[in-house]
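To illustrate the input format used throughout this study, we show a single complete record. The first block contains the structure-token representation of the backbone; no residue identities are included at this stage. The design step must infer an amino acid for every position from geometry alone.
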């Protein structure tokens, strides 16, 4: 603890989801959506500024999970639900998984899956004659399997015919998911002036987001974040007190709460409390010792 700026005293909140008091939502493990009871040498009151200083997030979550792992195959022999095993796949692993599940269906055709590294696209052929095309139909949810595999949401009919049969080719796949995550808290995130565009599920500065964390794209490793602007802080406008808070990590594309499959994440939060030498609340604006700075 030190008083480096007149009127403000610096503290840190170090949160590990293994130390949660409970889960913030019964639908999730406390490792994935922890609720913390905060206590220590002093009560966190008269909070002037806060920010996420650093975090460590395990890339143990699945980009294909139980909410986005199905699509429909329609061909001349019928309509079949294809269900992929939840996981985060390499391209070679997805070739095997998709090919196995397509050919384990009751379809009378033989499906072959290939991948082209030049544009990260998957192609599927069904060994049929030209006038027997097939269609993949994906759900239109925000975290739909189509986005991960590089296809359009909704119906994707086979486009061409080759010596291997009718062929469907997708676009750029995202097997490792979006390239960023959000650190969130329903308890305090709304007080962080982080703006998102209208196209986001939650835009403006009224959502739970506290920090944007770039991912490194390496399965099994921890994703590390360090505050990129140490001189800037979020103005908490004299928050009276903080004794209880939640944390959760969301997918940057769909805002889906991530499940870490038994692993924990950690977040370090910096806090500047107004001490007795600084006026509290709105009164401090007249003679505050430092300029209010907000992260952009």
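Output of the design step:
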């Amino acid at each position: 603890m030190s008083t480096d700026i007149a009127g403000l005293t610096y503290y840190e909140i170090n949160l590990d989801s293994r130390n949660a008091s409970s889960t913030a939502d019964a639908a999730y493990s406390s490792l994935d959506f922890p609720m913390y009871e905060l206590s220590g040498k002093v009560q966190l009151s008269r909070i002037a500024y806060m920010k996420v200083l650093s975090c460590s997030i395990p890339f143990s979550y699945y980009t294909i999970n139980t909410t986005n792992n199905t699509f429909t195959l329609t061909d001349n022999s019928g309509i079949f639900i294809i269900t992929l095993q939840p996981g985060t796949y390499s391209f070679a692993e997805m070739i095997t998984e998709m090919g196995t599940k397509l050919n384990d269906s009751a379809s009378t055709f033989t499906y072959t899956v290939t991948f082209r590294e030049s544009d990260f696209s998957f192609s599927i052929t069904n060994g049929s004659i030209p006038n027997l095309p097939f269609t993949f139909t994906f759900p239109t949810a925000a975290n739909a399997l189509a986005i991960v595999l590089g296809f359009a949401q909704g119906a994707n009919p086979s486009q061409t015919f080759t010596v291997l049969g009718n062929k469907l080719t997708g676009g750029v796949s995202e097997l490792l998911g979006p390239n960023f995550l959000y650190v969130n808290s329903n308890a305090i995130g709304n007080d962080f002036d982080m703006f998102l565009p209208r196209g986001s599920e939650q835009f403006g500065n009224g959502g739970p987001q506290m920090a944007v964390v770039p991912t490194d794209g390496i399965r099994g490793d921890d994703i590390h974040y360090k505050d990129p602007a140490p001189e800037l802080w979020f103005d908490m406008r004299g928050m009276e007190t903080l004794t209880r808070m939640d944390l959760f990590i969301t997918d940057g594309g769909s805002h889906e709460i991530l499940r870490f499959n038994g692993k924990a994440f950690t977040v370090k939060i910096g806090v500047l409390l107004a001490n007795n030498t600084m006026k509290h609340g709105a009164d401090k604006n007249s003679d505050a010792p430092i300029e209010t700075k907000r992260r952009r």
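Structural context for interpreting the output: The longest helix spans residues 91-104. The radius of gyration is 24 Å.
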